[in-house]
Design brief:
The structure is a single chain. With 785 residues, the protein is an alpha/beta fold. Helices cover 43% and strands 11% of the residues. The protein contains 30 helices and 19 strands. Helix 21 packs antiparallel against helix 22. It is elongated and about 120 Å long.
């Protein structure tokens, strides 16, 4: 192959004659070459000053690159450490690179046989180290200039950066615009006459297929690589390094480079003889030399080759053993090896180090590794789809794929593809003990939950046995890791939830999504003692349809307000004539207030909250204090149907949260009391002492709720809105809004305070008094009326 000469030839562009300058020097002496055509075209498109800047820069970049390569070979300084741990060997590591002489020779013959070569190997076989520390020195000694470019998602850009790194300063304006063919065509004209050619190495080209990039970018690179290959005037060869499992991806190149698979070299794993040289020889070249105890070397080779000889594991173990030598020691012995815990201990320490390097992805990495160990502490291979199913609920897919790739790169995982299925497993069984040591209790429980599920499903299929309460609770806690359950598993869990009256709503919805008829299974839970279960089931009944109307009607009379609220909302969602009739026939404790010009429709309690209702709340919340006039946690029996008093605003808020309701606003309270009729009292415009418990009644205490109904009810049928007890509202009042409003008057106050529009009574939120109680309300969707 002839290398372009550097004889200056004048060229014309934009009507100007370009003299004996930098631009002219890039044209070959013999006219008509591809490189000459490239330059001629560029002169017509770009200004002379921009081309001169480009040529100056490339002359400097190529000269500096050649100098770096030749000086690196000539100096051959001995690295300070004989091993590389898991770092790839670089050009300067050639003095300690051993064991691959046969591979270097075979690859060299392949590269010289054609202008395009594909080097492929499985992950961890050491192809990058072979290229840098073994093959590159051979090329440089023959005056062939290797250009190592890590592919990433833009191989052409990687070549430019290898020859013109950022340390040279900003790129000229034209450099990013050049195709790979144009760039190499111009760069090769600047080679020293002693350099025979460039050898462009695209290593780890699998990244070209994995990392995100535009489809146009793929096609541009394939096209320009084809241009480079076909340009016989270009003094360059090309070598693609790629992992075995991505080799088939090169088929994308075949349309442009039909023979891309014809000149291939497969780098096999190290054999025992090669591994022995890689372990032994670097120590012999130290000053002073070191050595392995012969028996240890044989034992180490046996341990490392238990599965297959893995160069990464060899490097990890040898690095740790060398670093274990004390000052003055020259021989690595069996004692050093055992003190480090053998291969198991050394690889385990490496595991911890590599996982911690992942930073915020450490939990995901640990979860992946934990999934690949069984509860019996053995390795298991899982497909990528199985890992996705188990982990995707907690981690997004791109991050999962990224961490899997990192763990493969770190040689902690093996990635194997067979018959279109990708499977992952631990790279070495010695990692298992370390993984088991640091996995979280949650990881262990999740693994046990899956095993429990497998056993339970067998019992369900054979005997229709449900999960016992303990097993169900355990699996429910780990449900996010069991998201891809089948029909049988889902029905078994749903029926178990109903049987144990736990998480019924969650498993009912899961069952319905699977197409299971949930209504016959749900019905027993409607009479559950736990009102949380009753409320959860009632909330689901809207999806059953009108078949559930009798159950919803019954729920409207439940003593616990949360259950009644869910029944009302379910009927509202149904919104049929039959649902409306069910609501009308069974509603007792709540009253619907239709919407007006300023308020949407809402429900309000027919009566103030009673001591009996408050007692249910306190049974459910043992940490909340009871009113001062109670004895312990029980209300006085003669006051059960009286309004609860001596509760402050915070007490009312806590009860509201428990009841799934809220305190009304002043406007809502007034509208429910009769504001629409513009009357002073709920029953009319005139005060009637027989209609309420105020000072005029001279009773001296509260009365049971509803005592004055229905004569004293508001136009909507809401009772006890005048007298008996003041009722907390949500609205702020007073200086700085540090008080809360109250409405309705009380048994101790006169009739004027019981007027609907009286708004000058407020107290601080922590105030308690035997004349203050509350009632609640809740909103409904817009479809509710």
């Amino acid at each position: 192959m002839n290398k372009p000469g550097n004889t200056a030839t004048p060229i014309a562009g934009d009507g100007n004659i370009v003299g004996d300058d930098n631009i002219a020097q890039v044209i070959k002496a013999e006219g008509g070459s591809t490189i000459s055509n490239i330059v001629q075209t560029m002169v017509k498109v770009y200004t002379r000053s921009s081309l001169e800047e480009l040529c100056d820069y490339l002359a400097q970049a190529v000269s500096a690159y050649e100098a770096r390569m030749y000086q690196a070979l000539l100096r051959h300084p001995l690295p300070h450490h004989p091993y590389k741990f898991l770092y790839s060997y670089e050009l300067e590591d050639a003095p300690i690179y051993f064991g691959r002489d046969a591979a270097i020779q075979a690859l060299h013959e392949k590269v010289l046989a054609d202008r395009l070569t594909v080097l492929h190997a499985r992950s961890g076989a050491g192809k990058t180290s072979l290229l840098n520390a073994g093959f590159a020195p051979r090329l440089i000694s023959e005056r062939r200039l290797p250009v190592y470019a890590r592919a990433y998602n833009d191989p052409a850009l990687a070549v430019k950066r290898a020859i013109a790194p950022p340390s040279l300063g900003p790129w000229p304006e034209l450099l990013p615009k050049l195709s790979l063919h144009e760039f190499l065509g111009l760069a090769c004209t600047r080679l020293n006459r002693q350099t025979v050619e460039m050898v462009i190495v695209f290593d780890q080209l699998e990244e070209f297929f994995v990392l995100p990039s535009e489809p146009e970018q793929h096609q541009n690179f394939i096209q320009t690589l084809g241009d480079c290959y076909e340009d016989k005037s270009l003094p360059a060869r090309f070598l693609i390094g790629i992992r075995d499992d991505y080799l088939a991806g090169l088929a994308e190149f075949e349309e442009r480079l039909g023979h891309i698979f014809h000149n291939r070299y497969w780098l096999r794993p190290m054999n025992r003889q090669e591994a022995a040289a890689a372990i032994r020889e670097p120590l012999h070249h130290l000053n002073p030399p070191r050595a392995f105890e012969p028996a240890l070397l044989e034992g180490l080779l046996n341990d490392l080759a238990k599965d297959e000889m893995e160069p990464p594991h060899l490097q990890i173990v040898c690095t740790r053993l060398y670093e274990a030598l004390m000052p003055g020691e020259r021989v690595i012995t069996e004692t050093h090896y055992q003190n480090l815990g053998g291969v198991k201990g050394i690889l385990g320490d490496y595991l911890r180090h590599e996982v911690e390097k992942l930073g915020r992805d450490v939990p995901l990495a640990r979860a992946i590794l934990a999934e690949l160990v069984t509860s019996e502490n053995t390795r298991q291979a899982l497909s990528d789809s199985e890992l996705h199913e188990r982990l995707i609920q907690r981690h997004d897919l791109p991050r999962l794929e990224c961490v899997l790739a990192s763990l493969v790169t770190a040689r902690l995982l093996q990635r194997n593809e067979m018959e279109g299925t990708v499977r992952y497993e631990l790279a070495h069984e010695h990692l298992i003990e370390q993984i088991h040591a640091w996995v979280t209790a949650e990881d262990v429980q999740a693994k046990q939950a899956r095993e429990t599920m497998r056993r339970a499903l067998t019992n369900w299929r054979v005997h229709t046995w449900l999960l016992d309460e303990t097993a169900f609770a355990f699996i429910h806690k780990q449900r996010e890791l069991l998201s891809n359950l089948g029909l049988e598993e889902t029905e078994m869990l749903f029926r178990s939830a109903v049987a144990h009256q736990a998480a019924v709503d969650i498993w009912a919805l899961a069952a319905r999504r699977k197409g299971i008829d949930i209504w016959p299974i749900l019905q027993p839970a409607l009479s559950a003692q736990d009102h949380h279960v009753r409320a959860a089931v009632v909330a689901l009944l809207a999806v059953i349809g009108e078949e559930a109307l009798p159950a919803l009607g019954q729920a409207l009379t439940d003593p616990v307000p949360r259950v009644r609220v869910q029944a009302i909302l379910a009927l509202d969602r149904l919104n049929t004539d039959q649902a409306c009739q069910t609501l009308q026939d069974n509603l007792q404790d709540e009253v619907y207030i239709p919407s007006n010009e300023s308020l949407p429709g809402f429900y309000i309690d027919r009566y103030p909250v009673t001591n009996a209702a408050y007692e249910l709340f306190l049974l459910d919340d043992p940490d909340h204090k009871s009113p001062p006039y109670w004895r312990g946690r029980s209300a006085p029996t003669h006051l059960l149907e009286h309004p609860v008093v001596e509760v402050n605003w915070q007490d009312a808020q806590a009860y509201a949260a428990w009841a799934a309701k809220r305190l009304p606003t002043a406007e809502e309270w007034q509208w429910a009391a009769g504001k629409r009729a513009k009357q002073h009292y709920p029953w009319g415009d005139q005060f009637l002492s027989a209609c309420c418990n105020t000072r005029e009644a001279r009773l001296g205490s509260t009365t049971p709720v509803g005592m004055y109904s229905p004569a004293a009810d508001s136009p909507y049928g809401v009772a006890d809105l005048a007298g008996n007890v003041w009722e907390w509202l949500v609205d702020k009042a007073g200086p700085g809004g540090q008080y809360r409003q109250l409405r309705g008057g009380a048994w101790f106050y006169s009739a004027d305070f019981a007027r609907i529009d009286y708004n000058r009574f407020w107290r601080k939120p922590d105030h308690r008094q035997d004349v203050i109680g509350f009632r609640l309300c809740f909103s409904v969707p817009k479809s509710g009326g």
